């Protein structure tokens, strides 16, 4: 699939009346305003593209930004962190836009902000000389119709140049939710970082290993291996040798696996509590929990409210189930790798 450059929606292509009116804002915020102000009538050049966008109701079902607090509180910790960041970004973007366009309703702007949030591509204008000066979150664009190709964990080659944006897929796409994702991983910062002393944090920061710890079905990443060795008290010389790649750390394997097992058991318990809470929510009636008003201030009728809530609860359950399976796969691997004692006669 090829999208020519004149069709790509970028900060540079935003109408002057929009970009100058808003002034200093994020690219995300500007693109959302461009869509909100440029797609209202049937003569819009994005008419056909707009026709296949998710509905507001679909976002109320599937995007945590529009869930009520009871559902948001049951998100995995890393997802909660992302949600808080998104809430702050949306608030800042809407503040800038509402000053320039005071008649724009927050719920309408939120819808277009989510369109950008869920359909943007990494993009830096070809020929840009100082790319590093552009904030990472501002390196984005919208490529009409190309946003369909986000339904699998592999299968696409992506490229763009002065002519346009090209995505080449190796299959046809007819699904959306990733039931199986070979790249799935669980962030571990919320479990590991609180265990460090101030001195250990400084040591990890100095070596570039503070944070960004993850777990996948194969085990923990190298960064986590470094952190675990510091937590279990590996000798400084041995720890430094492992950090520098001079040793494989096999002599520290037993205490490291022991600490990792404790962390995984903690994650299991965290998931058990969350799934119990999800089950309790599933048994509540919509009228009992104040879910009639969505987080963007819009109203939904009772049928849509019940449908959105049920869908969100199922998404939460499935995500926690996926995380539990990853944890158990790694625990099983650790158990199989433990040396067994000899049987007595």
Question: Which properties best describe this structure?
Answer:
disordered C terminus, mainly alpha, three-stranded antiparallel β-sheet, globular
Structural class estimated from helices and strands: mainly alpha
Strand order of the biggest β-sheet? 1-5-4
Helix content estimate: 40-55%
What does the oligomeric state look like here?
single chain
Q: What amount of the residues lies in strands?
A: 5-15%
Largest sheet: 3 strands, antiparallel
| First and last CA, distance | 69 Å
Break the fold down into its secondary structure elements and pairings.
Blueprint lengths: L1 E3 L11 H7 L4 H12 L8 H4 L5 H7 L6 H4 L4 H24 L5 H14 E3 L17 E3 L13 E5 L3 E6 L16 E2 L1 H4 L5 H10 L6 E3 L2 E2 L1 H10 L4 H8 L9 H30 L19 H36 L8
Antiparallel strand pairs: 1-5, 2-3, 4-5, 6-7, 7-8
């Amino acid at each position: 699939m090829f999208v020519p450059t004149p069709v790509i929606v970028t900060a540079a292509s935003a109408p002057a009346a929009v970009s100058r009116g808003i002034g200093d804002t994020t690219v995300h915020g500007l693109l959302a305003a461009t869509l909100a102000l440029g797609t209202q009538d049937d003569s819009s050049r994005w008419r056909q593209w707009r026709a296949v966008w998710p509905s507001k109701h679909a976002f109320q079902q599937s995007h945590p930004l529009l869930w009520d607090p009871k559902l948001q509180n049951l998100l995995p910790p890393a997802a909660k962190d992302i949600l808080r960041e998104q809430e702050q970004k949306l608030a800042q973007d809407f503040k800038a836009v509402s000053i320039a366009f005071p008649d724009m309703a927050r719920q309408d702007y939120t819808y277009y902000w989510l369109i950008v949030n869920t359909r943007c591509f990494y993009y830096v204008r070809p020929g840009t000389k100082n790319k590093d000066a552009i904030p990472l979150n501002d390196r984005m664009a919208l490529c009409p119709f190309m946003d369909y190709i986000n339904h699998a964990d592999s299968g696409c080659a992506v490229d763009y140049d002065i002519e346009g944006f090209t995505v080449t897929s190796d299959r046809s796409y007819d699904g959306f939710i990733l039931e199986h994702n070979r790249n799935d991983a669980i962030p571990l910062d919320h479990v590991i970082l609180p265990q460090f002393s101030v001195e250990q944090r400084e040591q990890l920061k100095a070596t570039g290993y503070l944070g960004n710890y993850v777990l996948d079905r194969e085990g923990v990443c190298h960064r986590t291996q470094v952190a675990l060795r510091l937590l279990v008290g590996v000798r400084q010389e041995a720890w430094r040798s492992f950090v520098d790649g001079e040793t494989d750390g096999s002599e520290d394997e037993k205490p490291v696996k022991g600490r990792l097992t404790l962390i995984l058991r903690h994650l299991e318990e965290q998931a058990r509590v969350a799934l119990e809470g999800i089950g309790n929510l599933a048994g509540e009636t919509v009228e009992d929990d104040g879910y009639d008003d969505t987080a963007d201030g819009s109203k939904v009728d009772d049928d849509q409210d019940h449908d959105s809530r049920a869908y969100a609860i199922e998404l939460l359950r499935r995500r926690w189930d996926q995380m539990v399976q990853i944890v158990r796969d790694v625990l099983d691997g650790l158990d199989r790798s433990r040396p067994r004692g000899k049987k007595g006669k």
